[in-house]
Input
Amino acid sequence: MNYSFALIVFLLLQTPSLDSESPKERQAAVEQMAVLGNKEAIPKLAAALKKEPKSDIRAEMVAALGRIRDTAAIPVLADTLRNDLDKDVRSQAIDSLLRFYILVEESGSVRTIFNKVKSVLIEPNAPMVGPEIQVDSSAKEALAAVMQKDFSDEVRVEAARALGSLRAKDQIPVMTATLEDPQNREHRTVRAEIVHTLGVLRDPSAGPVLEKALRDPDRQVVSEAVLAVGLVGNTAARPTLEEIFRTSSSASLKTQALESLALLRDPACTPLFVSLLDSKEDSYRELSAEGLARLRYSDAKGWRTRFDQEKKPNVRNGLAFGLAASGDLDYINNLANALDSRQSNQVEVYLFELGKFDGQLNELYRYMRSMNPKVRAGIVRVVGNIGDPSSTDRVRALSDDPNTEVVREAVAALRKINR
Output
């Protein structure tokens, strides 16, 4: 018995503890707790966070909460965002909040930005939460508070970006107030990121403030606002966008303005688009064809010769979109086949719009039987984004596809359709 008791004591002493004087043992204890669903560890990590002197270990504790992925940790992370003195720990808290709602594959030891590991969730072009996911209001409110008044502009930018990732449309009033607050005039990157996020959210209510941002004295804010007004569909901004296109000395800003106009679906843009169909600039020809396609331009029915003579694939896709939108459905085949090309992102947008707004969902189903797995995967992703419940059985059939990419897209599509 004495031997057994001694062995138990020995084993207990070998178990790493959050209370250990050794930083390595505290790190080891965090590693042991960082297990998906380990809700019991949350109060222990919360208590340890308040007394941990080393910022890199606090960051590991915060990262562990993200890996546990239980929303019971939201108050802990919100407190960290408010009170931790290290900006990298606060950034890690934003990353962990996002991990509750956006699935990211994780394996191995806990890694933090202290290890110089870039997080895909807080970098530019971060992924967005699926439309079927309900995000806790407390998480969005915590991020909005950080966006407004954190000491670090870098952290404020990450918080604004996170609100876009979580589709936090209910925080648009806070974002617009922060954008227009005179005290934020010098916080250029924060204001620019807020404008970008308002565009990502695509809510028409942000239209007036984005139109005003087109005349902002800061060039970075203007650049973000140019595309954002198109994304939210603010047709009142059309004259200003056309003026920017005609007069700007920046080639990139001119292209952004034309891209924004192509998104507006404003018939008043027609003369400009028609004038650019023969432009020497590839992007102008592409975007003018795209804009006219969205306007159901009647003369697009005669674009067959123009399509056959066009050499640039991005422009051909824009012309095919116009032909398909005008009723020449054979050109959906060109768009579907382009899913296996460098222009796949471009044609996914066109196929989505044809299926969602032009009543061509049944035409898209045909390509679920394509011999090319990239086409099948792309089409099922488009169908999932359209989200029509009538697609369920067709999508479910692809969950047994021999290609793993197609199966993954089919499973994701089913989640979106059945939300």
Residues 55-68 form the longest helix (14 residues). The domain at 22-113 is CATH 1.25.10 (Leucine-rich Repeat Variant).
